[in-house]
Amino acid sequence: MTMYEQLSQLDAIQINFSAAGQHAINIVLAFVMFGVALGIKPSEFKNVFLRPKSAIVGLFSQLVGLPLVTFLLILVLRNHITPMVAMGMILVAACPGGNISNFMTQFAKGNTELSVSLTAVTTSLAVLLTPANFALWGGLYVNYVNPESSMALRELHINVWQMFETVFILLGIPLTLGILTSHYLPKVAEKLHKKMQLFSLAFFVLMVLLAFGSNLELFIKYIWYIFFIVLVHNLLALSTGFSLGSLFRLPKNDIKTITIETGIQNSGLGLVLLFNDKIFPPELAIGGMLFVTAWWGVWHIISGLTVASLFRKFSKK
């Protein structure tokens, strides 16, 4: 069997959640995003304007560079990956940066202030840009790269406004409350923030277990295909950040930061969107999207820590 035929078996996986289960996941994610925002101070947004060059390059790398590179990779692999796997790659690229990137940047001896600023801005902009990027690049894929995939995706009519509403509720409101808490109750925010980081990690593990769940045997059978795709995709993401930072002759610490920020995506948000039956109805066979998004969340921790360790080692030398 070809790689395409093997991956097509993953697409048959369906996600079934009760309304109560979906609401519980949404509430927990909103709580997680509130915890992320506890570490964001209003002054972080000001820093973007005080050091505009590095911030602009970092934002361009995440919001434009990564989706573009993802699309180019899909062009190269178009005969070997299924439409749903391709859409999963686009969904990951459309998500904002993950908050674990701040810890990795600090460990790598990068510019932590820039890292937090980029995370804050991309997460805030995700309310608009995650639905927009997914619709833009997904539309290009369906209409121009693989028109025959329109049959496979005939039921995948993403309601951009529904996605906007979901992202706004899950990100916009918790972020606003978290930033206000950080500003007006800094001591409370400081105490809660570290605990919430651990809670965030536990929540993602739970999400992955829910995603794979009864399909663990199938995942183990085809992990090497997904592993290869996510490996190359994530490597290109990291390389995009490093290349753009180097091209614009940014300080070394800022290059480290943008490299890590571009390679660490909030795939947990992607999973929650996939679990939302108003955006992706349960009858859709979106297994390829599910596996790519879930495995990215596991792999980017490994790759991020590896890159951060290398940066730290070379910093000492």
In short:
By secondary structure, this protein is mainly alpha-helical.
Q: Can you characterise this structure?
A:
The structure is a single chain. The chain is 81% helix and 0% strand. With 317 residues, the chain is an all-alpha fold. The chain is globular, with a radius of gyration of 19 Å. The N and C termini lie far apart (48 Å). The model has no long low-confidence stretch (mean pLDDT 79).
Looking at this protein, list some descriptive labels:
mainly alpha; 317 residues; 14 helices; Na+/H+ antiporter like fold
Which secondary structure elements does this structure contain, and how are they paired or packed?
Layout: H1 3-11, H2 19-37, H3 42-50, H4 52-77, H5 83-94, H6 100-107, H7 112-145, H8 149-152, H9 160-184, H10 186-212, H11 216-247, H12 252-263, H13 267-275, H14 287-316
Helix pairs in contact: 1-11, 1-14, 2-9, 2-10, 2-13, 3-4, 3-7, 4-5, 4-7, 4-11, 4-12, 5-7, 5-14, 6-7, 6-12, 6-14, 7-9, 7-12, 9-10, 10-14, 11-12, 11-14, 13-14
**Termini distance?**
48 Å
| Arithmetic mean pLDDT | 79
**Percent helix:** over 70%
> Could you name the ranges where pLDDT drops below 50 across 5 or more consecutive residues?
none
Reported for the largest beta sheet, the result is: none
- What is the highest CATH level, the class? Mainly Alpha
Number of strands: 0
- How big is the Rg? 19 Å
Question: Topology as H/E string?
Answer: HHHHHHHHHHHHHH
Query: Could you please say which CATH topology applies here?
Result: Na+/H+ antiporter like fold
* Total helical elements: 14
Q: What amount of the residues lies in strands? A: under 5%
How many structural units, i.e. domains? 1
CATH architecture: Up-down Bundle
- The computed structural class is mainly alpha
Overall shape: globular
